[in-house]
Amino acid sequence: MALPLFSNLQTQLLLVLLFIILLHAPTTNSQAPDSHYYTTCETAENYTASSIYKTNLDLLLSSLYSAASVSGFSNDTIGKIPDQVYGLSLCRGDLSLYECQKCLKTAMQDVVVDCPRGKNAQIWRHYCSLRYANENFLGLDEGYYVYQGSGTNATDPELFNDRLGNLIGSLTTKAAYSSLLMFAAGSANYTSFYPIYGLVQCTRDLSNGGCNRCLSSLRSEIPKCCGGHDGAKLYGRNCIIRYELHPFYNDTAVNELSSPPPPPTPSPHAATPPPPTPPPSKNDSIVNPARTNGTTKTILIIVIAVVAVFSLILATLLFICFRRRKAVRTIARNGRDNQQDIVTSEAQLFDLDTLKAATNGFSDANKLGEGGFGPVYKGILLGGQEIAVKRLSWTSRQGLVELRNEVVLVAKLQHRNLVRLLGFCLEEKEKLLVYEYLPHKSLDTILFDSCRRGKLDWGSRYKIIEGIGRGLLYLHKDSCLKIVHRDLKASNILLDGDMNPKISDFGLAKLVNVDETQWNTSRIAGTYGYMAPEYALHGIFSTKSDVFSYGVIVLEILTGQRNNSYQESGQLVDLLRYVWQHWIEGKAFEIIDKSLDTHCQSEGVLRCIHISLLCVQEEPSERPTMSSVILMLSSSSISLPTPKPPSSLLRGGIISESNILETETSIDFPRTERSIGGAR
User: CA 144, CA 129: separation in Å to the nearest integer?
Assistant: First the structure.
């Protein structure tokens, strides 16, 4: 659908104009002076004032300023080659958002003055940095750096260097592997009178290993540039190190970043029970014999009943108020934690007006579908890029926890078989996720459509089976994190233009410890039919739970039928047991999708059925790992073990429509469970 280009162009030009006015507005300093430190400007390639590159650069600076003012870091790309411009901005991790805005504003003013026409520039200030270029540098660990020593020598250089090395080393490990901000600060004893204060930080476009390499490389330069100095600042392309013999960072902010949120303060009303109803006085309990008529008794009964009901209502209201206040505090605390994780993630922050314009105001004509999170809309950004926007429904039971999972987690995962998250929006009570647009939508829209499934020949189906497996292998083993998806199903497999599968919807995913094999939760959430039995019945999940779901999806791909709606003689049949029965009777080909010509690929089809039956076995220990699955798929020479009967929550084989459950059942997380981002 064509967008109203003229009005959008006017809006963009107005934003750029306001941004330029903002850059030239006077700046007041309320904190210690953030003196201009260093600017590098490469003039080998220049631009003109009226060029497309200049327009793209202004848009980029505006984007970096607005996004970093919220999260302290931003990276973005504007335009198309040859006028494409890449950039990032970073504020020091202990800076308030207000101070971050001031520093970035000054940095953008200075870089325009110092590098008026250069396409590649970087500026470092004490509290923030800014970089842009016409070539992609995002995620690259580059060795260029500048430094400034204090000019004062340490009294005991050997001891100082030893203590300094230990301090910077520990801060490097913390920033690279423990901090979402890739920031750490702290102190160590130099002498009994003089501590050494240190601070390190990386730009968050780097991987964990890239951050560690950048800081380690910068640390190795200290003896060359600043050996013996008792203070120095080293600024690399992607990381910074600073150390002094006096405090120079915001200790309160550093402690808040490194400490878990405090438990909610008990309500003062929690320990104060409602006042007891005073006992009746003697005068109230004595009835005048002269007035023992029916009217007096009736009045007395009514008064006692009213007092009793009023006391009960009052006690109930006090109890409800206490519970509600406690719940609000808990939700508010969790909401702050979730939003802090979200805004400090590596994903791009979109503004609501941009997404409204891209989706034509979230019109029904742009609606692609709807899931547990809410509706999904197709959108087109101003530059022509197609996007998919997932919008949290007001009635959805999912919220910031699931959205945080998506933003914090998916932004760190990069694999051709995982959907790519472009960014998010939290504005005007809207919760929006922005993904790459995949033209073939989800696997279920083709596979379970009798008219469209013919497009899926055996080659396409095998590519989908293998691609899903490789995506799961990456989540379980090959990525920097270990992830259990917990909601793998056909509707969460998206297909690109070449029918390559991409696993999506990480709202229920769990970040787990590498050295543990299984975990337990009291929040059982997902879709029945795809759930492993140990998870659905007991809340025990592991990577083998995803293997079970994978086996179910493979059987659906081969049969073209949903796992809980396979038709046999007019009845609904449990697909797993139906396939098993045909397998042991040697009639496996009878259950294959009739639109699939399998004559030339009979061996491959049978092998896939065999592998899927191994994946859906009752005992998790008897299911293969995804490493074994990929090996069995890729090598026909490897012999396969004999599968045991599959598990099924629907015992007996025949089920009725009233027993089919496709909804999610959710219970609160226990305190002992580890969630994405370390929230409790």
Answer: 14
Q: What is the 3-state secondary structure (H, E, C) of 401-415?
A: HHHHHHHHHHCCCCC
Query: What is each CA distance from 625 to 153, 509, 546, 551, 628, in whole angstroms?
Result: 58, 18, 10, 12, 5
HSE-up of 87 (CA within 13 Å, CB side)?
Answer: 29
Q: Report d(CA 168, CA 223) in Å as an integer.
A: 13
Distances (CA, A) of 606 to 94, 506, 561, 580: 59, 31, 17, 12
Contacts of 475 (CB under 8 A, 6+ apart): 413, 418, 482, 483, 484, 485, 503, 546
Q: CB within 8 A of 59, min separation 6: which ones?
A: 12, 15, 16, 78, 79
Interval 111-120: pLDDT, tens:
888 898 899 9
CA dist., res. 469 & res. 534, Å (int): 21
Check the CA dihedral 293-294-298-299 and report its sign.
Answer: negative
Taking only Cα atoms into account, the Rg of the chain, rounded to an integer number of angstroms, comes to: 31
Token pair of 128 as six digits: 């923030």
Active site positions, annotated: 487
- Using one digit for the tens of pLDDT, what is the confidence trace for 115-138? 988 999 999 988 999 999 999 999
Q: Which residues contact 290 (CB under 8 A, 6 or more apart)?
A: none
Model pTM score: 0.49
Q: Give the pair of three-digit tokens for residue 278.
A: 């005073």
